[in-house]
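Async update (no meeting this week)

Hi team, since we skipped the sync, here's where things stand on the single-chain job. The sequence we agreed to prioritize is pasted below, unchanged from the tracker. I ran it this morning and attached the output directly underneath so nobody has to dig for it. Comments welcome in thread, and please keep replies under the output.
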Amino acid sequence: MIIYPAIDLLNRKCVRLRKGSYEDVTVYSDYPVTFAEKWKEQGAKYLHLVDLNGARNGDAINLDLIKEITSQVKIPVQTGGGVRTIERINELLNAGVTRVIIGTKAVNDRAFIKKAVEKYGERIVIGIDAKDGFVAIDGWEKKSQYEAVEFALMMQKIGVKTIIYTDISRDGMMTGPNVEAMSEMVRSTTMNVIASGGISMKEDLDRLALTGVEGVIIGKALYENAINLQEVAGAY
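Output:
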């Protein structure tokens, strides 16, 4: 099980949101590269970057920052947020990103995902962000008509190999992950499932490891020193 430290980018700063709310922001650094380097030094094998400006309105103001992180920190990086065109995928891959995460566009345009998967294969990851069991879109501010597992199976049929499954109600709250939902997703699909949302302590990672998820994204728990990355990075 891979541990993915999360670096959320908003206005070129490293931040965390509570429950996905842009009105409830904590700024951890004005220079996110510092955290990218720190997590690598502490044993991270992969970084998870979220472009919150892109997720909200398609703004690409963090692209140069993403490129700086990939060039300075020599471990794989996956990133998403506002990816809605092939051109944007190309920009991110050319910036050194290993995998590109697509969220809202996957819900609104399955033909686009089919095209992207045909062109880039396993470098395309789908982000499934669940709110009350349904897939949320547009920076988590709207709810679609698709249930999370139902939508995951649609993506699997297209050829997607990896999904990131987030329970929005837990995100940034450090209240523990939705283990039941993660377990159901693993059982219901044949894709690699990366769990996200609510991680608050090492015991949460122990419980998620038993579900068979491929990886776990940790955000606030690292920034608040509730989990020591050096202790867990190679433990699973």
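Quick observations from my side:
Residues 42 and 230 are 5 Å apart (CA to CA).
The first helix runs from residue 33 to 41.
Reply here if anything looks off.
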